[in-house]
């Protein structure tokens, strides 16, 4: 003998089963945030360049801009002297060497331009011949008297907007010489 459930129980159980399935799905999906760490707790470089600290000098967003391997290049980035006295920073890339004096508690741009409200600048750091193709890394040595020498792998970027001397450009519209219109045959 087979026993059948009453139609009243069937009508009540369908919505209940649907609600239970919805609750189980919502609980399962909301658990994903507990299994994935928050990205704001991880340190990362939010720029194309690389960062390095050498004694009191913090180097930020270092990169080399060039047109091609073997061509001249320019080191870009920011050097921040967090110390209470001026620091002499020596930069060596391939056969090129530059010596910069960074005033105490000051940030200077390595491309020689003023940094923010500061009027303190240094000579631009030029590289006579970049050793690698754009998209690669070139070793650059940074030396201070207190911290010694540190070699940093610096990314090499092609000279195009927003880096280097290239500027963002858009093609201009030129009116065609022949402006006659032709109506299609009807």
Q: What's the helix count?
A: 2
Radius of gyration: 31 Å
Biggest sheet, open or closed, and with what strands and sense?
A: 9 strands, mixed
- Kindly report the average pLDDT value: 83
Outline, from the CA principal axes? flat
Instruction: Work out the strand percent.
Output: 25-35%
pLDDT < 50 stretches = none
Helix vs. strand class: alpha+beta
What's the multimeric state? single chain
Distance between the termini: 82 Å
What is the number of strand segments? 9
SSE pattern: HHEEEEEEEEE
Short description:
Helices cover 15% and strands 34% of the residues.
Protein model, in words:
The protein has helices at 7-30, 32-35, and strands at residues 50-54, 57-66, 73-81, 87-93, 96-102, 106-109, 125-127, 137-144, 148-158. With 186 residues, it is an alpha+beta fold. The model has no long low-confidence stretch (mean pLDDT 83).
Defining key terms:
alpha+beta, flat
List the helices and strands and how they pair.
Elements (H helix, E strand, L loop, with lengths): L6 H24 L1 H4 L14 E5 L2 E10 L6 E9 L5 E7 L2 E7 L3 E4 L15 E3 L9 E8 L3 E11 L28
């Amino acid at each position: 003998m087979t026993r059948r459930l009453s139609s009243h129980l069937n009508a009540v159980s369908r919505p209940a089963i649907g609600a239970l399935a919805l609750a189980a799905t919502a609980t399962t999906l909301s658990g994903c945030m507990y299994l994935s760490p928050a990205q704001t707790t991880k340190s990362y470089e939010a720029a194309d360049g690389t960062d390095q600290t050498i004694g009191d000098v913090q180097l930020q967003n270092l990169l080399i801009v060039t047109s091609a391997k073997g061509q001249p290049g320019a080191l870009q980035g920011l050097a921040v002297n967090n110390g209470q006295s001026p620091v002499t920073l020596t930069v060596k890339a391939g056969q090129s060497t530059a010596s910069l004096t960074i005033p105490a508690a000051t940030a200077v741009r390595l491309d020689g331009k003023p940094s923010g409200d500061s009027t303190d600048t240094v000579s631009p750091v030029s590289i006579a011949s970049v050793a690698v193709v754009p998209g690669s890394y070139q070793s650059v040595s940074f030396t201070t008297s207190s911290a010694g020498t540190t070699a940093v792998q610096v990314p090499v970027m092609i000279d195009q907007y927003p880096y280097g001397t290239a500027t963002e450009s858009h093609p201009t519209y030129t009116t065609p010489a022949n402006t006659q219109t032709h109506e299609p045959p009807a």
